[in-house]
Specification:
Elements: H1 2-40, E1 59-61, E2 68-76, E3 86-87, E4 92-93, H2 99-112, E5 117-120, H3 140-147, E6 152-154, H4 164-173, E7 177-179, E8 183-185, E9 196-201, E10 204-211, H5 216-219, E11 230-232, H6 235-245, E12 252-257, H7 271-277, E13 283-285, E14 292-298, E15 304-310, E16 316-327, E17 330-342, H8 350-355, H9 357-367, E18 370-374, H10 403-416, E19 420-424, E20 435-438, H11 439-445, E21 452-458, H12 459-470, E22 495-498, E23 501-505, E24 514-519, E25 522-523, E26 529-535, H13 536-544, E27 553-556, H14 557-561, H15 567-577, E28 582-583, E29 591-594, H16 603-612, H17 633-637
Parallel strand pairs: 1-9, 2-5, 5-6, 6-7, 10-12, 12-13, 13-15, 18-28, 19-26, 23-29
Antiparallel strand pairs: 2-16, 3-4, 8-11, 9-10, 14-15, 16-17, 18-20, 19-22, 21-26, 21-27, 23-24, 24-25
Length: 638
């Protein structure tokens, strides 16, 4: 009996040891997990430098020896905070998005070619609740690029939406090379980040040049601290100069540009023109436009250059492949091909999702914070023709005054104490539905992290501003059944005004459309100075149009409230303070469209065919502007 008890005591001791060991292992594992999460969520501390000092070193991939080499490039762009395949503005999964999906495709590329070069062409850290993490030592989007082992990050214009210290910190913390050849430090003319990156890939010398749109000082005019000490040069001139400086240092030349196919604001510095004028490029990856294309540009001397862009949000991984062969000791390009590999049907990488679940969890929780109640739908018919919530024909919000735009303008008028306010519809399907008013709803109706400005503006300049905005509409023709939009004007550049009554005569050409203007029952006085509320982005536009200057600013929400002064936050605060948490749609119909015949004979039948889908209203080639051509009864009869 004594022996049995002794053995049982030894057994119990052994069990205690095993359980202790198991508990220790679990605790250590949990500790490691906690430590890892803690490192990812570490806050930036102390004063942050806005200086960047990068040193160029040739990156070697593989060893020389073969006489024929395949060079592979995988490129993302305009991901805009989509780490997960999720849109936090509506709290929905989005199949064709997310770095967690492009990572799967990137891994497949590397399995086929271990020396693949992975590049992101910018607009990475902004949008989709990404600003929730701006106080971290390293932003999760940059952590994700490091996790995926990106070789290059090219800066986009939206990287400059925040303080320069934030950008500089994340540039320093990116493990690869940060590029943009056309950003210079004003103090000494040096490059802000690297202009190019050289690779030695299996003995083949590869140069990658980066570029960003030069209009950042205009877009960020309301926040010059975002680009302090920097100047932005013309991409095509810089590209030519950079290529010349690299002569003899590369066998294959790649462009990684946060540039659209065509230049903006009258410039010709787009991807197509660069491909035409600088035939040395073997392959160019574009961005900024959110476009989906892979095509060949015919150069000036009969040469051909592939250009490609992978849409936005992680819609695809752009894959470029350059075949080279050694000929008398010199590498010659044998072939180039490019394609977009879509993510919609790709399953997300589970390990990466787990690694960054703190981002998803916090974003979802933040999006679902209840800030009030909505008593009724703000726009009963989101699609003007079908009445459905998804716009497939014409968006009501840009065809008539709505309670939603009135709400945004009311918020802006409240904080600026202005006479007049302007606001744009950042989404054609934006709406507030009856029920809980959640923080995600604010992001849904106000997509960007803009701040608010109050400007002193003469009546003459106000009228010019309104005419500029009204150029969004195409000129109406006799027989038009629908009203349409100018495909060259983005929807976010069409502002609707409050505090002023006016008509838009679309029978007239752009520049002569604003009619019957009244302010508080009085005619607009061209000489009088009015107080006008605009967002910081539009203030930049008005400066470029010579309609406003920094001296005209009498109110800056960011100066007054810092991050709490972003218009999205002001909407939430207004609902709590002024509406006491309960908002009811109110619209005063202070503007309307005229110069359009609403009673065209046969209109009802055509509208029925549009609803049925037998007649399609055209959208822009990139899909970003709906309703770009009016349906005309005479043209249908041809």
């Amino acid at each position: 009996m004594h022996m049995i008890k002794k053995r049982m005591l030894h057994f119990a001791a052994a069990l205690i040891f095993v359980f202790s060991l198991t508990a220790c292992v679990e605790t250590n594992s949990a500790a490691r997990s906690t430590e890892q999460t803690s490192a990812r969520t570490a806050k930036a501390r102390g004063k942050q430098s806005d200086e960047v000092k990068l040193t160029h070193k040739i990156i070697q991939k593989g060893q020389p020896g073969a006489d024929a080499v395949t060079l592979t490039f995988g490129v993302t762009g305009d991901v805009h905070g989509r780490l997960y395949a999720y849109d936090y503005a509506v709290c929905e999964e989005t199949a064709a998005s997310g770095l967690v999906k492009t990572y799967v495709l990137a891994q497949e590329l590397r399995a086929q070619n271990p020396n693949t070069v992975l590049i992101d062409v910018g607009d990475t850290v902004q949008d989709n609740s990404a600003d929730l993490f701006n106080d971290l030592d390293t932003h999760p989007m940059i952590q994700a690029l490091n996790y995926m082992n990106y070789d290059i990050w090219v800066l986009g214009n939206h990287e400059f939406n925040f303080e320069k210290e934030f950008l500089a910190r994340n540039i320093r913390h990116f493990n690869g090379s940060v590029l943009s050849a056309n950003i210079k430090n004003t103090k000494d003319g040096s490059h802000f980040v690297l202009p190019y990156q050289l690779f030695d890939i299996e003995g083949v010398r590869v140069a990658v040049i980066g570029m960003v749109p030069p209009h950042i000082p205009m877009w960020e005019a309301a926040a010059p601290s975002h680009f302090k000490g920097l100047e932005f040069e013309d991409p095509i001139a810089v590209a030519r100069k950079t290529v010349d400086s690299l002569k003899g240092q590369y066998d294959v030349l790649i462009g990684a540009f946060h540039l659209s196919r065509t230049g903006e604001y009258g410039t010709n510095s787009g991807v197509i023109e660069i491909a035409k004028q600088i035939p040395e490029f073997d392959l160019i990856f574009g961005g900024h436009e959110h476009a989906r294309y892979a095509s060949i540009v015919d150069g000036q001397n009969g040469d051909k250059t592939w250009i490609i862009e992978p849409g936005a949000y992680g819609w695809a991984l752009a894959v470029g492949e350059v075949q080279v062969k050694k000929d008398n000791g010199t590498w010659k390009v044998v072939s180039v091909k490019a394609e977009n590999r879509e993510t919609a049907k790709i399953a997300a990488d589970k390990a990466m999702e787990k690694e960054f679940n703190f981002v998803h969890d916090k974003s979802v929780a933040d999006a679902n914070l209840i800030v009030g109640k909505v008593t009724a739908d703000f726009i009963p018919r989101v699609d003007y023709i079908t009445g459905k919530d998804k716009v497939t024909t014409m968006p009501t919000i840009q065809l008539e005054d709505t309670a939603l735009i009135d709400l945004i303008n009311d918020v802006q008028l409240y904080y600026t104490k202005a006479d007049i306010s302007s606001a744009a519809a950042f989404r054609s399907d934006m709406n507030l539905k009856k029920g809980d008013f959640k923080k995600k709803d604010v992001a849904f109706i106000y997509k960007y992290s803009n701040t608010l400005r109050g400007l002193n503006m003469t009546g003459e300049n106000l009228l010019k501003y309104m005419e500029w905005s009204a150029s969004y509409y195409n000129t109406a023709k006799e027989g038009d059944v629908t009203i349409s939009f100018n495909p060259n004007v983005r929807g976010y550049n069409y502002d609707m005004f409050e505090g002023i009554d006016y008509d838009i005569d679309i029978s007239q050409e752009a520049g002569n459309r604003i009619k019957n203007v009244k302010i508080k029952g009085q005619d607009l006085d061209p000489k009088k100075v009015y107080k006008v509320a605009v967002n910081n982005y539009r203030f930049g536009t008005l400066q470029s149009l010579k309609l406003a200057t920094p001296k005209d600013v009498y109110y800056d929400s960011y100066e007054v409230m810092q991050d709490a002064g972003r218009i999205r936050d002001l909407i939430g605060a207004y609902v709590k303070k002024v509406d006491k948490g309960v908002i009811t749609p109110k619209v005063n119909y202070n503007w309307k469209i005229i110069g359009f015949d609403p009673n065209v004979e046969g209109k009802d039948k055509i509208l029925d065919e549009i609803r049925a889908g037998t007649i399609k209203i055209p959208t822009s080639a990139d899909g970003r502007t709906p309703n770009i051509k009016s349906i005309n009864i005479h043209e249908l009869k041809k």
